[in-house]
């Protein structure tokens, strides 16, 4: 059984980008820049944003955090985005989700210039992903999972892959990227019948449902590859959607939480920001 070390892999990616960036920065005379907008004070969002800014510092990028009040109007939020769209020092713009209920999330995402949408959530980038146009940005979490498969030489061709969860951020784009790898993909949601049976048939399981210990050892077959995208807090302790202790006894590969998919998501955000910076240079 191999534990997929997302932390080490993300470090490797960040080191490579740090080096390439420092060389390019000398030539062009400015750093790559990421702007992060956070609305309100959701504690989980605060942690995610802090980690994203820390990663920017780690690779030498310029970063700015724009903290906005929970009660901001959609109009004022749109005008903040417009300023960043026109700011030449900003290559990537990210609006941390979720947003307060009175704000239309899709409207906000699509107000970000598609060329700066390093989250890969803009309708244009989703469309590019769908048809395989490589000029767009891929959503960071599913892109990070694919990178893990590649690094560990896990071949997906012809494999039965079960994706649990159908969010716009993870489940849906994950399914598309797996299709590109010629996997046979089945997706599940909270209404799915006989989840346990489906799990037992899967060669690869990607758990992105947000329920602690949803995937148990009785559900999976010997040699399964398990990717745990869940980030749950139980009794103050961080855990995924997979019962790691038990499932790791049957798995051939498994990701831990923390230290698995999380750091890879951040590495992909940095990679997308660097891609945007490079695209502007050319
Ligand atoms: N909220 C949870 N995950 C994400 C993410 O990847 N990007 C943004 N912007 N918000 C999130």
TrEMBL record:
> What Gene3D superfamilies is this protein classified in?
Leucine Dehydrogenase, chain A, domain 1 (3.40.50.10860), NAD(P)-binding Rossmann-like Domain (3.40.50.720)
**Pathway assignment:** One-carbon metabolism; tetrahydrofolate interconversion
**Which biological process terms from the Gene Ontology are attached to this UniProt entry?**
L-histidine biosynthetic process; methionine biosynthetic process; purine nucleotide biosynthetic process; tetrahydrofolate interconversion
Output the SUPFAM superfamilies linked to this UniProt entry.
Aminoacid dehydrogenase-like, N-terminal domain, NAD(P)-binding Rossmann-fold domains
Organism (species): Leptotrichia mesophila
Which GO molecular function entries does the Swiss-Prot or TrEMBL record give? methenyltetrahydrofolate cyclohydrolase activity; methylenetetrahydrofolate dehydrogenase (NADP+) activity
UniProt entry tagged with the keyword Transmembrane: no
Identification of the protein by name? Bifunctional protein FolD
User: Keyword Amino-acid biosynthesis, does the record have it?
Assistant: yes
Q: Which family does it belong to?
A: Belongs to the tetrahydrofolate dehydrogenase/cyclohydrolase family.
């Amino acid at each position: 059984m191999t534990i997929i070390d997302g932390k080490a892999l993300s470090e490797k990616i960040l080191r490579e980008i740090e080096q390439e960036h420092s060389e390019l920065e000398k030539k062009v005379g400015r750093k790559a820049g990421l702007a992060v907008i956070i609305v309100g004070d959701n504690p989980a969002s605060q942690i995610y944003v802090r980690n994203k800014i820390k990663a920017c510092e780690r690779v030498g990028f310029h970063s700015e955090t724009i903290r906005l009040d929970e009660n901001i109007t959609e109009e004022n939020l749109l005008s903040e985005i417009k300023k960043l769209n026109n700011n030449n020092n900003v290559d990537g713009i990210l609006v941390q989700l979720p947003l307060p209920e009175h704000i239309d999330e899709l409207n906000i995402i699509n107000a970000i210039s598609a060329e700066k949408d390093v989250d890969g959530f803009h309708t244009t980038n989703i469309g590019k992903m769908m048809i395989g146009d490589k000029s767009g940005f891929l959503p960071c979490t599913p892109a990070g999972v694919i990178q893990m498969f590649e690094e560990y030489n896990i071949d997906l061709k012809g494999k039965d892959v079960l994706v649990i969860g159908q969010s716009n951020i993870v489940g849906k784009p994950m399914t598309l990227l797996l299709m590109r790898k010629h996997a046979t993909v089945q997706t599940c949601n909270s209404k799915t019948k006989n989840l346990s049976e489906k799990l037992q048939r899967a060669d690869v399981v990607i758990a992105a449902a947000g329920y602690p210990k949803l995937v148990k050892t009785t559900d999976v077959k010997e040699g399964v590859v398990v990717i745990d995208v869940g980030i749950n807090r139980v009794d103050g302790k961080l855990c995924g959607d997979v019962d790691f202790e038990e499932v790791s006894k049957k798995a051939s590969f498994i990701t831990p939480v923390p230290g698995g998919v999380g750091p890879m998501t951040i590495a992909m955000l940095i990679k997308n920001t660097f891609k945007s910076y490079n695209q502007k240079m050319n």
